[in-house]
Give the backbone structure.
Amino acid sequence: MSIRRTVRNMNAYAWEESSRSIAKRYGLDEKSVIRFDMNTSPFVLNVVAEALQKRAGMAVNEYPPANYEGIVKGVANYLDVQERQVVVGAGGDEVIDTIALAFLEKGEKSVISTPTYSMFSIASQRVGSKVVEVPRTASHALDVDALTEAAQNAKLVWVCNPNSPTGNAEPPSKIRALMESTKATVVVDEAYAEFGGESVVKLTQEYENLVVVRTLSKAFGLAGARVGYAVTNPELAAVLNKLRLPNSVSEPATVLAGAALSAEGIRQMKDGVAAMVAEREKLKSRLEPPFEVFPSETNFLLIKFPDAQKQFKRLLTKGLVVRNLSENALTKNCLRITVRSPTQNSKLLEALT
Ligand code: PMP
């Protein structure tokens, strides 16, 4: 088979095991398995639940509006940006993929600040880019000097802020310093921005080399619908819109996204975020040494264990699935745990302590 060499050598995106398979292995009811591994929301917004019930406007025999105008207007209003700055995709992942496709020729350099979201590397490799990894500092801070150095002759620099899996957020001044020191385009993934840290969305009106990626999968609780977007300058947005696949966001997803981005949806999202942030702090305060909990501005906690691999397996036997990062060089002995509902978090705490 003449599959491209870059593709043959690539690592695929890795998930934890499915709930069905875990339930079968440990003799559990599949419905009792709780996913603490995907940083999704335990809530569905009321406006979304109502839209699902009514199913109004979900004409599945038709394509959605080709320009996703409802979502575009909703995002522009939500973030106070121009409609022509917005690019919609089937999740942040598709937007990330479109950005890589727009900027990276085969053999060209892209830079990532590790440890971070694995799709930056995967999307870059898919188009044949050479990925250069720049580790964060011991306290998980962005190493702007090292990134600047690595970004010489690079086309893209990928930064996640707040970062997954570390959970910390960096101030806009650091992103600004990075943008000013490089000709490369800086992509800032703000999938977790609603939970903490300060957004750089407004800087897209000031800098030409900035793209911000966002999603409705986390704070808005719409991971299953698959809706994400980029905000950038209008010229680049037009290029990304030219490249994106047509109609990859389904008609039902556009209706649900419209409800989520309504004034009432945004209000409900903010209430949900406040509840999750309070839960995060509660969970954190109950996890004492020997667990080391890192600072988080997201809906998850990165936790270092004396023996993470053993903990991971023990939790799995109880149907509690967390993200196992214990074998990765930069997150040795760490597990990443999504903050879920109070009842679900209590089950986790009980199992851990
Ligand atoms: N960025 C980060 C940092 C993420 O954790 C995720 C979710 N896995 C995404 C982007 C993409 O999410 P989605 O495709 O569901 O919008």
In short: The pocket of 4'-deoxy-4'-aminopyridoxal-5'-phosphate is lined by residues 39, 91-93, 117, 160, 164, 189, 191, 215, 217, 223, 228 (CB under 6 Å). The chain has a mean pLDDT of 96. The chain has two domains: 5-44+265-352, 46-262.
